[in-house]
């Protein structure tokens, strides 16, 4: 036990005395959360909209106020010809143009039919789609209000409820994603590098010629990173609650327990990588390329797994972060408990045990 | 009692089966200071690694303190002290932290065995809060020796402890080893420096994975079969060339400011005449005291 503590203390010295490690360990998670939270959002916020109002009547004004009231759009008005409109798109600032034709109100009231033209910049497909959707729903809203006293036969009104995330906040999807990503990267890379470093600097040679047992090395190496990663989890959750306004709906204790499990999975993976490699560079490369890409692609964080071809869907099952992403999403956003998550938890547990056993088995008690 | 017994040890590397250690046998008495003397690549480090159980031999057997290096490797690991050739302590830990770590790893404390390291440790103690990576070469070696000694090992393996260390520190280091001998600790030390060989009780000259000779330094020197001459002339380069082409020469090579040479016929007057006849000036020929290096060169030819 004393040996173990001495080893753990030594590991802490290594981490705390190396500025670069500290930066990766604590800088990366915070930076990622903030970048994903504020910069890389796929929400449409404050889009520049140009309104060309040839009608200037009651109906067009009413609609304009509604569009302007939405926080999605910033409205600018200008009376431009069709040609000039196309010119404004080329400058790139305007995301969409709304054109009210002359006699808009008249057409609506007397012909029961009026047209609004929406022109969007579809070079960015998602934004164009989203802006059109928002605008259409505002217009539909207005139309319903105009019609509210009328009896229209055969009307279907979809009653939409956005469950778990009524405001459609982007943060909901990425906080669990970033958590999975950051924990995976930090835990895998840091442990992998820290064991390989002992091989590279020759200290492993001294450790081998000592009564130290492989089990002890593995656990002593993993322990400090588990503690530091839990600090990271806390930081990410605090940021998400207080900066991004995303509360944890489910049990925080359960979230921490599941995070601990996932961190151990990652540590086991890191230890395994470090046993199989001989230089810090290779260990880092494998951790980055081998972990970052699959996590981005197969965790469901950026690309929905359901849309992938079957072989890729099957591959996604061996990516631990996929399961952790599901767990975090369920706890944080849906507020589910362990009864709904036991399957995912068991899978992570199985992966951890497997990796630890393989690492212990393949730990080299001699130089090669 | 024999502390280390090595029998026909073989080590090969890679697919090409490059032989690093070729059928090496020797034994070291308990409390002896035994030197493995040989140039880089002679196989010294491989032998040390096999004896400290961090490498498996490809043939032969060996034991340390009666424990087999393959079967009983755990017992050896907790009883010997090992100082690798490359400085292998934690550079980002201070002197004191390194020492404390290694003491704890071996299940002991600094206080318990302080008497063993005291002579050495007092020299680096003023810097005990300095990180190991910031120490000079000599101080690093002293710290490494302290760390290898802190658990009171029965046998100490020092792999090229003085390589890259200044002459004064080298001298000090050997004095420390002599004092450790008084503690009845068996010491195996390897070095490429021939002048250090005479400080050992017994030495093994090793080259290309083979042991050329094992004996006390004095006996090895005494066993030199020829009369060794030290020769000097104003034109050193030319002198070496002329010596090489001398019909009766056995061996000739530069040795400091002199050239050392042995001949089938050791008539110094004839030799002087021969050298002058070849246009050399300032010729001086005298008998030379045989050193380990001369023996080594002799054995290589």
From TrEMBL, chain A:
The cellular component terms of Gene Ontology attached to this UniProt record, alphabetical and capped at eight, are: plasma membrane
Query: Ranges for the ABC transmembrane type-2 domain?
Result: 128-366
Entry-linked InterPro entries: ABC-2_transporter_component, ABC2_TM, ABC2_TM_bact-type
Write down the membrane topology.
Multi-pass membrane protein
Cell location:
Cell membrane
A Gene Ontology molecular function term of the record: ABC-type transporter activity
Top-level division of the source organism's lineage: Bacteria
Keyword tags: Cell membrane, Membrane, Transmembrane, Transmembrane helix, Transport
Per the UniProt entry, the signal peptide is none
Chief subcellular location? membrane
Annotated PANTHER family: MEMBRANE COMPONENT OF ABC TRANSPORTER YHHJ-RELATED, MULTIDRUG ABC TRANSPORTER PERMEASE YBHS-RELATED
Give the protein's recorded name: ABC-2 type transport system permease protein
Organism in which the protein naturally occurs: Dyadobacter soli
From TrEMBL, chain B:
Family per record: Belongs to the ABC transporter superfamily.
ABC transporter domain segment(s) = 4-233
SMART domains tied to this protein: AAA
- Keyword Nucleotide-binding appears in the UniProt entry: yes
Matching entries from Pfam families are given as: ABC_tran (PF00005)
The answer on whether this UniProt entry bears the keyword ATP-binding reads yes
PANTHER family recorded for this chain? ABC TRANSPORTER ATP-BINDING PROTEIN (PTHR42711), ABC TRANSPORTER ATP-BINDING PROTEIN NATA (PTHR42711:SF5)
Report what the protein is called: ABC-type multidrug transport system, ATPase component
GO terms for MF: ATP binding; ATP hydrolysis activity
Which UniProt keywords are present, listed alphabetically? ATP-binding, Nodulation, Nucleotide-binding, Transport
């Amino acid at each position: 036990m004393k040996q173990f503590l001495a080893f753990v203390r030594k590991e802490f010295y290594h981490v705390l005395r190396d500025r670069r490690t500290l930066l990766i360990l604590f800088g990366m998670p915070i930076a990622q959360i903030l970048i994903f939270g504020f910069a890389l959002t796929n929400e449409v916020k404050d889009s520049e909209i140009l309104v060309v109002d040839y009608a200037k009547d009651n109906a067009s004004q009413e609609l304009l106020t509604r569009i302007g009231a939405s926080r999605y759009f910033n409205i600018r008005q200008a009376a431009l010809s069709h040609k000039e409109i196309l010119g404004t798109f080329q400058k790139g600032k305007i995301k969409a143009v709304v054109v009210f034709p002359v006699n808009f109100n008249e057409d609506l009231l007397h012909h029961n039919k009026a047209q609004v033209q929406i022109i969007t910049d579809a070079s960015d497909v998602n934004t164009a789609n989203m802006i059109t959707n928002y605008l259409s729903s505002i217009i539909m809203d207005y139309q319903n209000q105009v019609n509210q006293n009328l009896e229209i036969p055969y009307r279907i009104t979809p009653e939409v409820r956005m469950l778990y995330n009524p405001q459609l906040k982007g943060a909901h999807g990425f906080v669990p994603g970033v958590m999975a990503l950051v924990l995976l990267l930090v835990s895998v890379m840091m442990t992998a590098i820290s064991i390989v470093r002992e091989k590279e600097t020759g200290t492993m040679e001294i450790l081998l010629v000592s009564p130290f047992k492989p089990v002890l090395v593995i656990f002593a190496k993993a322990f400090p990173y588990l503690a530091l990663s839990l600090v990271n989890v806390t930081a990410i959750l605090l940021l998400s609650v207080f900066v991004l306004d995303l509360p944890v709906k489910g049990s925080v204790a359960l979230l921490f327990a599941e995070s601990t499990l996932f961190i151990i999975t990652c540590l086991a993976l890191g230890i395994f990588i470090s046993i199989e490699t001989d230089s810090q560079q290779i260990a880092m490369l494998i951790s980055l390329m081998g972990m970052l890409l699959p996590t981005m692609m197969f965790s469901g964080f950026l690309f929905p797994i359901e849309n992938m071809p079957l072989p890729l869907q099957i591959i996604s099952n061996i990516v631990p972060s996929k399961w952790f992403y599901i767990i975090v999403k369920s706890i944080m956003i849906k507020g589910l408990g362990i009864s709904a998550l036991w399957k995912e938890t068991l899978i992570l547990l199985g992966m951890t045990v497997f990796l630890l056993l393989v690492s212990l088995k393949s730990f080299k008690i001699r130089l090669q | 009692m024999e502390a280390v017994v090595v029998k026909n040890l073989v080590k090969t590397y890679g697919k090409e089966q490059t032989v690093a250690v070729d059928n090496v046998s020797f034994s070291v008495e308990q409390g002896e200071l035994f030197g493995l003397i040989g140039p880089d690549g002679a196989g010294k480090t491989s032998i040390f690694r096999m004896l400290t159980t961090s490498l498996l031999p490809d043939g032969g057997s060996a034991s340390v303190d009666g424990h087999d290096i393959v079967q009983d490797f755990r017992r050896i690991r907790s009883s010997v002290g090992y100082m690798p050739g490359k400085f292998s302590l934690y550079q980002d830990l201070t002197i004191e932290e390194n020492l404390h770590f290694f003491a704890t790893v071996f299940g002991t404390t600094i206080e318990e065995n302080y008497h063993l390291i005291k002579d050495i440790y007092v020299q680096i103690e003023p810097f005990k809060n300095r990180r190991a990576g910031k120490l000079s070469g000599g101080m690093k070696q002293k710290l490494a020796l302290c760390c290898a000694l802190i658990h009171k090992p029965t046998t100490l393996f020092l792999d090229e402890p003085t390589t890259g260390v200044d002459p004064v520190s080298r001298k000090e280091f050997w004095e420390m080893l002599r004092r450790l001998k008084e503690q009845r600790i068996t010491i195996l030390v390897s070095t490429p420096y021939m002048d250090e060989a005479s400080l050992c009780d017994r030495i093994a000259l090793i080259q290309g994975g083979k042991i050329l000779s094992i004996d006390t330094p004095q006996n090895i020197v005494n066993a030199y079969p020829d009369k060794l001459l030290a020769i000097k002339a104003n034109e050193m380069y030319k002198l070496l060339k002329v010596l090489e082409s001398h019909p009766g020469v056995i061996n000739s090579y530069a040795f400091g400011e002199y050239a050392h040479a042995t001949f089938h016929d050791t008539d110094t007057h004839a030799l002087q005449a021969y050298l002058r006849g070849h246009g050399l000036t300032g010729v001086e020929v005298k008998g030379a005291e045989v050193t380990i290096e001369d023996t080594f060169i002799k054995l290589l030819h």
